[in-house]
Specification:
six-stranded mixed β-sheet, five-stranded parallel β-sheet, 12 helices
Length: 344
């Protein structure tokens, strides 16, 4: 095991310490396939018009069939990706409670986010969740919907409560995005727009996302990168098929963990030292800040000799922007600006 032996060293200042709030991009992942006549266009009978949903609407979400008799009116969101997806579509009035937030919302909807009722800072229990009488629980991770959490999906369905998981978080091989793409991200925005009968808002959001992404002139070509999410003894990094890889590809950065077939995965310090990345993307979270990661990297003799550490070539991304969701295009734009600043 790679042992970290703390030794004092002055931490360099973060480059571009926040991500500029810009565009919104939704729960990245493969678009859940439709499975009933009145579901998404791929499924069967089309909607009455391009901007109106025909209910009942049935979708296949991570292998669970979910039928919406009408647009959800009382929603509990779990994880920032779910909360921000609804805010991006102007649906804050549908949210009756939020839980397990990963950090501050993007500036574009920060005021709306701060006005939302917080059910729990962590994963809420089923009793507390059901007290709010939701008609939908919208979760960022499949693991949020369990008997130990907000309730397992069959139990919730039996109680008349629908559940929805961000498609990028699907674990089943038939549903897990491999690899995640921005086209899949945009398709999920459109599906969410159909579920809530706000297709016009979804179309506008997608158009804006595509335009902003197309405007980025990648500044990463010829450079390698480590996406450092969390962990001390064994770092947890952005691997080869999820949102980190998608974002690094958009920047034309070579991910040193690209060969790992996962969204995030542990990667030993020995492998990182051997790869010697040119830049290090630091995920900034309240429980594991970018500054704390810098202190760790600079305090160990081995990692202190990494090219990126010696040059202070750190980029930062807020935790919610690094997960598949409405802030991925924002992350690309901000990280690209930080990359360009390295050369300035």
């Amino acid at each position: 095991m790679f042992t970290l032996n703390p030794a004092p060293r002055t931490a360099r200042r973060l480059l571009g310490a926040g991500v500029a709030a810009a565009s919104l991009a939704l729960l990245a992942g493969c678009a859940a396939p439709a499975s009933a006549p009145n579901s998404a266009p791929a499924g069967g009978a089309p909607s009455a018009s391009a901007t109106q949903t025909v209910y009942p609407l049935t979708i296949d979400n991570c292998g669970t069939e979910v039928t919406f008799e009408a647009a959800p009116e009382r929603v509990i969101t779990i994880k920032s990706t779910s909360t921000e997806a609804l805010l991006a579509l102007g649906l804050d009035d549908r949210i009756v409670g939020t839980a397990f937030g990963d950090g501050p919302a993007a500036a574009a909807w920060q005021a709306a986010a701060e006005a939302l009722p917080v059910l729990s800072d962590k994963l809420p229990g089923q009793e507390a969740t059901l007290e709010l009488e939701p008609d939908l629980i919208y979760a960022g991770w499949e693991s949020n919907l369990s008997a130990e959490g907000a309730g397992d999906r069959p139990t919730l369905a039996a109680l008349g409560v629908n559940s929805l998981v961000s498609p990028a978080a699907c674990k089943g091989e038939a549903y897990r995005p491999n690899p995640l793409s921005f086209d899949a991200v945009f398709a999920d925005i459109e599906q969410l727009g159909e579920i809530f009968d706000v297709q016009d808002a979804a179309a506008t959001l997608v158009a804006g996302q595509r335009a902003e992404l197309a405007a980025v002139q990648p500044a990463g070509a010829g450079r390698s990168a480590l996406w450092y999410s969390s962990g001390n003894d064994v770092p947890y990094v952005g691997a080869g098929i999820g949102a980190p890889q998608m974002i690094l590809d958009a920047l034309e950065l070579e991910n040193v963990a690209a060969s790992v077939q996962d969204s995030w995965a542990p990667l030993g310090w020995e492998a990182i030292v051997a790869a010697d990345p040119d830049v290090i993307v630091l995920v900034d979270a309240a429980w594991n800040t970018a500054e704390s990661k810098i202190a760790l990297l600079e305090s160990n003799p081995a990692t202190a000799e990494l090219s990126a550490v010696k040059a202070g070539h750190y980029l930062t991304v807020p935790f919610p922007a690094g997960e598949a969701g409405v802030r991925n295009v924002e992350a690309v734009a901000s990280l690209n600006a930080q990359l360009a600043a390295l050369d300035g």
